[in-house]
Amino acid sequence: MNLILLGPPGSGKGTQAKLLSQHFQLNHISSGELLRQEVVQNTPKGKLIAQIMNQGELVPFDTVLDLILKQINTSPNGFILDGTPRDLSQAEHMDWFFNQNHIHLDTVIYYQLDDPTALKRLANRAREENRSDDTPQIHRERLRIYHQKTQPVIDYYQKQHKLVTIDARPDIDTIFANTLKLIPSK
Ligand code: AMP
């Protein structure tokens, strides 16, 4: 089974991706996490990525693609793509790649959350973890970019009849139970 998870920063899609990957034995591919791993290597490329991430902007897609394709190609049971696609051109590119490689995308799960709740959660997470891209100003910028660029991706998958929408306001266990109900059984 191959899934894509969409939702604003703070929607908890990373947490749900972890739970789903354990439940269905899928490879959890988080583009943000893969990029953060590049950053800690402190290579020239890593430093460039850090600069972009610290402004809440999108990293050039060829860099992201390199990292996620390696993972997709080593996912025998299927994958959960978390954090990609971030805009329409990424979505179209992923479709093209899936077609070329006879990969079937089963479902796109959209975790819907309002901005005030997303901002509150991001502020809490910034206190708990120590992510360098976690300041209130960057949170607002990431949400702005999300609305501008990622929101159209939701309509794109809706038109393909791949999208299921989940309310991301309740607690983690409730969201997970609701997610399982909406995933077509295999
Ligand atoms: P995330 O952990 O998914 O919230 O991503 C953290 C940051 O990584 C984002 O704010 C972007 O700067 C970068 N990023 C993650 N995925 C992508 C992507 N598919 N395309 C471009 N930038 C990305």
- Please give the number of β-strands: 5
At the fourth level of CATH, the homologous superfamily is P-loop containing nucleotide triphosphate hydrolases
User: Strand order of the main beta sheet, please?
Assistant: 2-3-1-4-5
Instruction: Please write the string of helix (H) and strand (E) elements.
Output: EHEHHHEHEHHEH
Low-pLDDT residue spans: none
Q: What portion of residues is helical?
A: 55-70%
In CATH's first tier, which class applies?
A: Alpha Beta
Index terms:
Rossmann fold, about 190 residues, binds adenosine monophosphate, five-stranded parallel β-sheet, about 60% helix, alpha/beta, 8 helices
Question: Would you kindly provide a written description of the structure presented here, covering whatever features stand out?
Answer:
- The chain has 186 residues and is an alpha/beta fold.
- It contains 8 helices and 5 strands.
- It has helices at residues 13-24, 31-41, 44-53, 61-72, 88-100, 115-128, 136-159, 172-182; strands at 3-6, 27-30, 79-82, 107-112, 163-167.
- It has a 5-stranded parallel sheet, with helices on both faces.
- Bound molecules: adenosine monophosphate.
